[in-house]
Amino acid sequence: MNKFTKKMLGVMTASAAVIMMSGCSVAKNSSNAGTKQDHAVVKIGVNMELSGAASGYGEAEKQGIQLAASEINKAGGIDVNGHKKKIKLIIRDNKTAIATSASVAAQLTTKDKVAAIVGPATTNAGTAQIPNITKAAVPSVSPSATDPKFTLQKDGKVQPYVFRACYQNNFQGGSAAKFVFNQLKAKRVAILADNSSDYGTGLAKAFKKAYQGKIVDSQTFSAGDKDFNAILTSFKSKKVDAIYVPGYYTEAGLIIKQARQMGIKVPIVGSDGMADPKLAQIAGNKNATKIYYTTPFSVRAAAKDPVAAKFMKAYKARYHEQAPTFSALAYDAVYMIKEAIETGKSDDSAKIATNLAKIKDFTGVAGKITVDQKHNPEKPIATEELTNGQVSNSFKIE
């Protein structure tokens, strides 16, 4: 994910821009001399949005990370070539800011000497850390950075130390288009997309490319907007069968609330940025009916899967709430790092990167994962339906 307000996008400093533009050259010149761990522990860094615009996602991911580490340590730790070593988490807040994310990555790799990093949650913050993790040969697994170019250098080659546990925007947006047309039977759709992030614009672009019906209108909003009545009134007059809202729960919740208040009863379909209980809190439970969103982690489907069900039970026991999608993705990211260490029989950071790229048929709580040549996970996708603010159904996308 990469939620930033216009203000936050506007304050990217010249120094941060230089850092980001330097990513490709750093990637090519890295010595690939990995970070070594001491005898007792494996240090895993967490570069996460714990404050700022994307803190809701960052906090959910932190909880998934902490649960995974706690479970692994309770079971004896990570098996590093026959020697059990406990995980030591080093958690730092990037404040949903590009320059801070780059600084956090530098601290984690050069000062803390971590073996791997989980995070950031957003694409922009994740991209900002790439030069520093590449220079240090320390891999990072983002639970939720979905921009298609995130794992790639400017020349199209893969970033050697960048991985993710989530699927890309183009796959998610295209899957939503198929669901809307084939399963909701919606022939006339309006789009209201978040234009303040690559997340919203990328999903909208992918949806438009794949949708087989008629897009009768396409409008945008910015992060932080509160009043959507004028746009929704226009949609209502055009007799749409559904509305596609690629964005985050903060604005999507208000869009749903205002749409229902003016009598728009058609399905409102979104993306995994809506997969948070706060969506219904903002929209109101009664209004959050006939709401659908694509997700890599379906609560209803998970209840039937023994691995996912175990995770859900443990999460509820620890945090006293239902596990959100982002916690599940972050939980899987930690276990992917564990898998890479154990299969490669080494906690040297460069070797962890090599073995993350070799993950095949890894059983995660969000589905079976195989990492492809571009460091993206091949995994299933589903759509969840909300009725009165609660998940009432889930669908496989055909």
UniProtKB/TrEMBL annotation:
<protein>
    <submittedName>
        <fullName>ABC transporter substrate-binding protein</fullName>
    </submittedName>
</protein>
<dbReference type="Pfam" id="PF13458">
    <property type="entry name" value="Peripla_BP_6"/>
</dbReference>
<feature type="region of interest" description="Disordered">
    <location>
        <begin position="375"/>
        <end position="398"/>
    </location>
</feature>
<comment type="similarity">
    <text>Belongs to the leucine-binding protein family.</text>
</comment>
<feature type="domain" description="Leucine-binding protein">
    <location>
        <begin position="42"/>
        <end position="382"/>
    </location>
</feature>
<keyword id="KW-0732">Signal</keyword>
<dbReference type="InterPro" id="IPR028082">
    <property type="entry name" value="Peripla_BP_I"/>
</dbReference>
<dbReference type="InterPro" id="IPR028081">
    <property type="entry name" value="Leu-bd"/>
</dbReference>
<feature type="compositionally biased region" description="Polar residues">
    <location>
        <begin position="385"/>
        <end position="398"/>
    </location>
</feature>
<dbReference type="InterPro" id="IPR051010">
    <property type="entry name" value="BCAA_transport"/>
</dbReference>
<feature type="signal peptide">
    <location>
        <begin position="1"/>
        <end position="27"/>
    </location>
</feature>
